[in-house]
Amino acid sequence: MTETTSGPARGSRAKGSSKANKGLRIERIHTTPGVHPYDEVNWERRDVVMTNWRDGSINFEQRGVEFPDFWSVNAVNIVTSKYFRGAVGTPQRESSLKELIDRVVKTYRASGEENGYFASPEDAEIFEHELAYAVLHQVFAFNSPVWFNVGTKQPQQVSACFILSVDDSMESILDWYKEEGMIFKGGSGAGLNLSRIRSSKELLSSGGNASGPVSFMRGADASAGTIKSGGATRRAAKMVVLDVDHPDVEAFIETKVKEEEKIRALRDAGFDMDLGGDDIASVQYQNANNSVRVNDEFMKAVESGAKFPLRGRMTGETVEEVDAKSLFRKMAEAAHVCADPGIQYDDTINRWHTSPETGRITASNPCSEYMHLDNSSCNLASLNLMKFLRDDDEGNQSFDAERFAKVTELVITAMDISICFADFPTEKIGETTRAFRQLGIGYANLGALLMATGHAYDSDGGRGLAGAITSLMTGTSYKRSAELAAVVGPYEGYARNADAHKRVMQQHGDANDSATRVDDLDTPVWAAATEAWQDVQRLGKKNGFRNAQASVLAPTGTIGLMMDCDTTGVEPDLALVKFKKLVGGGSMQIVNNTVPKALKRLGYQPEQIEAIVEHIAEHGNVVDAPSLKPEHYEVFDCAMGERSISPMGHVRMMAAAQPFLSGAISKTVNMPASSTVEDVEEIYLQGWKLGTKALAVYVENSKVGQPLSAKAKEKKKEEQPEPEKVIEYRPVRRRLPKGRPGITTSFTVGGAEGYMTANSYPDDGLGEVFLKMSKQGSTLAGMMDAFSIAVSVGLQYGVPLETYVSKFTNMRFEPAGMTDDSDVRMAQSIVDYIFRRLALDFLPFETRSALGIHSAAERERHLETGSYEPDDADFDADGLAQSAPKAELALPKEEAKDAKDVQRTATEPEAATPAPREAHNSTELMEMQLGLNADAPLCFSCGTKMRRAGSCYLCEGCGSTSGCS
What we know:
Layout: E1 2-3, E2 25-26, E3 43-51, E4 58-68, H1 73-83, H2 97-114, H3 121-136, E5 140-142, H4 144-149, E6 161-163, H5 170-185, E7 189-193, H6 213-230, E8 238-243, H7 249-268, E9 289-294, H8 296-304, E10 307-311, E11 318-323, H9 324-338, E12 342-345, H10 346-351, E13 376-384, E14 389-391, E15 397-399, H11 401-421, H12 427-436, E16 439-444, H13 446-452, H14 460-488, H15 494-514, H16 522-543, H17 558-562, E17 577-581, E18 587-591, H18 594-601, H19 606-619, H20 647-657, E19 668-671, H21 677-689, E20 694-699, H22 710-719, E21 742-749, E22 752-760, E23 766-773, H23 779-796, H24 801-808, E24 817-821, E25 824-827, H25 830-842, H26 845-850, H27 856-865, E26 912-914, H28 922-930, E27 947-949, E28 952-954
Parallel strand pairs: 6-7, 7-8, 8-9, 9-12, 13-16, 19-20
Antiparallel strand pairs: 1-2, 3-4, 5-13, 6-13, 10-11, 12-20, 14-15, 17-18, 18-26, 21-22, 22-23, 24-25, 27-28
EC number: 1.17.4.1
Keywords: Cobalamin, Cobalt, Disulfide bond, DNA synthesis, Nucleotide-binding, Oxidoreductase
Cofactor: adenosylcob(III)alamin
């Protein structure tokens, strides 16, 4: 995107050595001389009215906002409510995307000019226009703090990720509490390593035993919980790391496991242990992600079954030796039960460290993608990969590597400029960040890109394209970093770390050269990446580098929605059918528009494509789709559903991208509920062997209904002798006594009135249900009578209520619609309503929570306490309400013909139908269509089901996330 001031060579270099001649020549990528990017698009006014789907109350309203006509309803809603500054209803309030972009982009340009980045005012203007164009057309986005803060009167914090440090002194520990609190107060998260704190098995200078890091974690956890309660609607995000050779590592591993056991015990005793409940505050260690930092010595000991030394913090001497395999097993057991701790591979991380002479990398940010020096920060930006997929005149696809490289240069230049004017939460973080200038460029929409190009996510072709793009991105970034070093100088810490930095650049280049070229899509990208890494070696040797770090793969939560991305970060697609809001109100479910592109790439004809898309619209998957070859099924595998990607498929994708990243990857490896502890061990072992830097796993439903006492019961059972005879068990009917407690509920569903009487056993538990409809003698009334008898008999024979609830909720038939029940505002049928009401009346919270059923009071309490994982995207300096829009009733097909929302062509059909009335986003739609429950929390801003974004969660409705964005 740039050229030198000293010649026509491609790229950007300093012109001569004198200060007067320095500056970048900026090349146009998308813009036209004499025409502002704003003048090349159609603008329209829209009303943003975001309502609470539970009761219809308005949470946010701003009418007449101005956006391009191609921006989706979701993107407009989230940018308006999250990023526009100024009090709503005042002249100071931003009301146009132009104002938002100008506020940010003009600040970058002014700082770039002030600090000598551009060769001339003309180059500065091209920089401004190109940056504005890229944001306007959703080609890339800065992380949320930029949109919150840049160009405002408040501190211009641009970073989302922070790493702190703590030493073995009370003064340092108290500083840790304070610094962490200030970061939480500002809406961001931080990570740190506690391994410098001496263990509880070591002595103090006074002769007494030390408290140990696990003890001090209690204080930090309480502080984070207090800030959560007293601050905005969010919980503090933090990462706590402990080295595997720390003598307290076993206690660290067990912290959350024991607390999970406590939650179950207290809940069984009648305490309010629901998330946000009155008694949940007694549970510790819930405000952080925990990770164990393992080294190669430990992993080799695990493989060989050797002993491993735990070393004192003050002397380095061995305090005790443990069996490495046994310790590794305990890590896997804990992760299998409660998803913590994750694992970080210390030697792998530090082999790729550009600044080791200054200090080791000991920790990460809460989402695990940013890894660098203690007391540092990283500002993020992400590219939308689908914007670089192009079709030629003959319908063939290619990835536009040249334009991708130019946009990468533009964004890296802007990101580096931001450090010149940025503010930081602590003085130490500011000093380190200005001295090393860590950047975190990344991308979103990889999953969509792979599917659109006919690549299975878990395939050599998919990994080849992902690796090539990542290599080109990081190589181009470091090339630009070397060019910037010639213009404005290398980072302050470079001289001391020059040899190490150049060694790491060589490692990246070697990995690029040895990577396998797979097909016609990735091979040209690898070629461009090879050229970029050759330039990195040459320019870096001459100029040094401006940035110690260049790239990471972040979750891209809220900014992914801003760019209308189908998939976040490095993640695959969630499901093949999506939930889409319409400009005129209402919503529709559509088959992903990447599906027709994939089918076309695979050689299917228009008629076949249309039939396959219709099959997906009806069934939610490609299994048995007409004329679709079974060998192509894998192209359409998603994170969840009929054909879901295997856990190792996720790990292999991380391994394909990792050698070409400065930092790491925010991603959780989802594992099916059938996974064993041995499966977790294998994932952690393969993550090390494949060269990833960090891993976290989540076994589906592991935190619900999985009592820790199961192992003890199994062991006891194993100790008993085998029975001498086979006993056949048959269900026995347990009839209710003559006098029985009951609840009678009147209800209205879609205009149909009725009464439900639910009677219980005296010792608790539903035993029978009677249903009476208002129109006696009707077919419906008769069927309800017969149905209630069948359900009652099943209950008395021991069929669990939750089984009925899971089978009959979401069943759709008339009458359906609005109800008069404040807890269940909408029902898809009378049966759907009945079992939602029974679940609320008779099932414990954790059981129905897993089924996605909550009362209005529970949702209200969750909204008020705001206890959900934080993300910078939720932080609003103006104190604006952060809630999701209500999904309106779906429009009839004949009323949803807006060409901007539903487009059908011969080669790219889009099967669109009204969305189910009870769905509020894609996750809930997928649950209904596939008949399963997503392992994701409810958004405590708007109550809808979130979806995974990296190692965090994202709410499609209101943009709230639980990590970096």
